[in-house]
Amino acid sequence: MNPLMDPNVAYLLLVLGLVLGILALFSPGTGLLEIGAVFAIVLAGIGALNLRINPWALGILIVGVVPFYFALRRSRHWIFLLVTIAAVIAGSVLLFETAEGKPAVNFWLALVTSSVVIPILWVVGRKGIEAMGRGKDIDLNRLIGAIGEAKTDIHKEGSVYIMGEEWSAWSDEAIQAGSKVRVIKREGLILQVEKVNEE
User: Fold this and answer.
1) Which residues, other chains included, contact 85 with Cβ-Cβ below 8 Å and sequence gap of 6+?
2) What percent of the chain has pLDDT over 90?
3) What CATH number is associated with residue 164?
């Protein structure tokens, strides 16, 4: 028998795909999470093609998103997280059914998976919301006018040490390494500098 046709395997692949997709939303950039999510969901879809799906169990899973949203927004209210876990367990167990109409997903598998995955997603979601709510750690515009030191000879390119960090820099005039410099402009993460008279 093809393992993808096993409802438990299809369920685990579906959960894996959803978890990777949610993690990709909170940490975009590499593309690996997105590719993994698509791959897992496609494999779960292939497995689900030959399985009977309960539409109302899918509805329970979707309704479980609402208390999860409240659990993310109100971190001290654990009841929302518990309701989400209960909804996900119920929806997961009943999502696929056998030809006789019985649940096809193992109850203990759904219980353990949901009890592990939902709190992890809650922690990741909380941290993601906190990170989005925080202001910038450093305002790059503060660099304009800052004084630092040329770490290398600078003309069309070089590097400077300013405000505790090393930056790529360039200048209209040649500046020797070790000279004091002032930032006059920022273009992305590259600074335009000028030499500061030691006097």
Assistant:
1) 114, 115, 118, 119
2) 10
3) 2.40.50.140
